Amino acid sequence: MSKPKLIIVSAPSGAGKSTLCQRLLKDYPEKFKFSISSTTRKPRGQEQNGKEYHFLSKPEFQKGIEAGQFAEWANVHDEFYGTSKSEIDAAFLAGKSIILDIDVQGAASLRKSYPNQHIDIFVAPPSLEVLEQRLRSRGTDPDAVIAKRMKNAKSEMDRMNEFTTILINDDLDETYKKFKDVVFGK
After folding, report:
1. Residue 90 lies in a domain
2. Does the pTM of the predicted model rise above 0.85?
3. Least confident residue range of 23-32, 126-135, 175-184
4. Considering the domain boundaries, does residue 1 fall inside one?
5. Who has greater pLDDT, 102 or 13?
6. Alpha-helix runs per DSSP H in the chain
7. What DSSP letter does each residue of 95-121 carry, written as one string?
């Protein structure tokens, strides 16, 4: 990678995208910055404002939309999520590529906004059954939320062919090797 790029990574909740992104950041901190998205959803577990997400109220988020502060935004799982333009600009100014752990709607918007500056990857689970097991093993969501995430996973997976690269995460170490190869253009 000669010029900084957007590394757009999408997947259903529980497919492993966050794990892959965090591993790349840990292994190559000098090359990548993680985009901290803004959201209106409530923090889960030990999540902290400004670390995993910028947690905003719906009125605050709406003001950001109206002011044109987001490179993309979407309504996902009845909550707003978005990427601020300032996050992308700061990474590029520092000479770093920015990793975006993002939903399929946001990915589509970013591909249009940055047509020559992105790498897009969809991480899929080996099956929907495995995905449900992963979500349940987290122990963070009630059954109703898991059911909603499974429903959304099906529609997200219907859009995976919009991505240049699709990785099936059935073995984390092997998937990570493939992930790195795509990001570094090997």
Report:
1. yes
2. no
3. 126-135
4. no
5. 102
6. 17-27, 58-66, 85-93, 104-113, 128-138, 143-157, 172-183
7. T-EEEEE--HHHHHHHHHHSTTSEEEE
